Amino acid sequence: MASVKLKNIKKNYTKDVTVIKGVSLDIQDGEFVVFVGPSGCGKSTMLRMIAGLEDITEGELLIGDTIANDIHASKRGIAMVFQSYALYPHMTVAENMGFALKLAGIPKAEVEQRVKHAGEILQITHLLDRKPKALSGGQRQRVAIGRAIVREPKVFLFDEPLSNLDAALRLQMRVELSKLHQELKTTMIYVTHDQVEAMTLADRIVVFNAGVIQQLGSPLELYENPSNLFVAGFLGSPKMNLLDASVVSGDAKGATVRLPKGIAVKAAVDAGRAKANDRVTLGIRPEHIQLASEADQNAIPARVDLIEHLGDHVLAYIEIPGVNEIMSMKLPGHSTDLKYGDAIRVVFPEAECMLFDAEGLAFKRLR
Amino acid sequence: MSKKLTKVVELTGQYAGLIAFAIFTTFPFLWALSVALSEDPSNIWLFPRSFLPTDPGWAWFVRVFNEIQFMTYLKNSAWISLCTIVGTVLVSVLAGYPLARLRFPGRGLIFIAIIGTMMLPSEVAIIPNFVTLKHLGDWSTALLGFKLTGLNTYSGVFLPTVAGAFGIFLMKQAFEQIPQDLIDAARVDGAKELQILWRVMVPVSAPSIAALAIFTLVNAWNEFIWTGIVIQDKAMLPLSVGMFNDLTGPFAVSTSMVMAGIVLSVVPVLIFFALTQRYFISGLDGAVK
Predict the structure, then answer these.
(1) Within the 319-358 window of chain A, which residues sit less than 8 Å (CB to CB) from chain B?
(2) A158-183 pLDDT, tens per residue?
(3) Which A-chain residues 107-166 have CB contacts (< 8 A) with chain B?
(4) B67-288 maps to which CATH number?
């Protein structure tokens, strides 16, 4: 087991094309860190640099206490699971899993014993003599993970390992990966664009965009206190409602902003740096928008555009007069009396409203 | 027209087409086989009667074995073909891999130069190759005291043919189709560049290598002009040249015997094809996704 330290890592493909623009990160020993971000944000490149499959243009990579920039991939003490499984088609499952050990010159008996042990952990001992083509997608992914386990690496690297599985299998494998981490207690770095995987698996999430770390923290921290508009919009499904607004008043104890058509909304944020009439973005998560009671004076009138029944909850897409964006709100599953075209009144609770300045940076929430 | 009738007409059409094609491609061989099996050669020029053996028997085949050095020629052909296949596969794999997977300056230019040689007819190379081979033979005799290669050696027959543009192109294409993840996985597993090539890329490319082996075999087996020029010793001749020399020309014994010889010389290639054709099925099943 080992920690991983990235010190101002940069990656250029050509002089002008920089895909990683100076990433610094400390990953603790035994931690499960998830790199998440949209396609092309540099998260996979970062992982491949840690693996030793891409050169590091600038900066320092430490695995444990060793600078690993120029160490060959096989000598870094890492094992990698690929999105496409990358199993050797001409070898049996056991040969696939033992290939690295065989190359390292480990005695046959020990290879067999380690392959068997990994097979037991992943419950694939009955598949050891099969070739990859005789396996299902889920079984192939298990073998790919098994191939990583037998090497007893200091760090596991996962490059979108569940993307090719169907939804049910993905859920099952997610749980198994989580268990595996608890069992092995090895450092794991996991790349995904699926925010659900990120939220459920990670000790800490690193949100990437355009080759830069946007935010780093525990899943809940990122969900509740996104540092900027990108993180706010990226995490959460359906995504956070983001509305253009202007500041009416603001101080360290809160802010009042105005939506188009003069609708005033309060947000519990430290708005000390905001001035009246500043352009800001108001953010509220779909589950925080509430239906107003008759007596509520501050309620905002809205119209129902679409209703989606999802069993445990209902998603309502609503339109507020004067606001261009269609907003989504999450209601309990039994709120089925809403229908298309209904005129409703909603409330944005002050404590749940977030505010972002013109540069997209969040105002600190007061909680 | 009912659905069933349409299906019947469709199938009949397809089978008729396939059968016509099969007849078109196999009829020279079938004619040769029929003539070789006809102990009485009186009908061999009558169409279509000649396609049915007259007085069938193995007499002409027996005469081929008795009257010419068939087994010697066969052995020579097999040896030359084997060396050509091994050499061609080795050169094509070793040249195709860097062209497909490694980045180095001049890569594109080298590939174009290799492909460019396909534009030239092979006969263009006969004189330069002959001169080079003669000198190589002289030098090897002078330096080593024996003839390692040169005129009238087996290596002289196959060495000029092993570095072919077609094989290199075929293997380059095959290696390019292998997913990068597989190579990366091998690299993370600790494989060095040559281990990646021999333990991952080559086994995965088995179908392409089998195809290359078959094409090379057919070419090497049928090679006539170059072999005829290089080999002067009768005992070293392969089937193509040896049989032509012995069975044709002004003193030719009989057409039936030529046909028996042809049938016998085709059989080894057919056996090789039967053994290797299963490798044509994709080798990548289950590797990725």
Answers:
(1) none
(2) 999 988 888 888 888 899 889 989 98
(3) 131-135, 137, 140, 147, 151, 164
(4) 1.10.3720.10
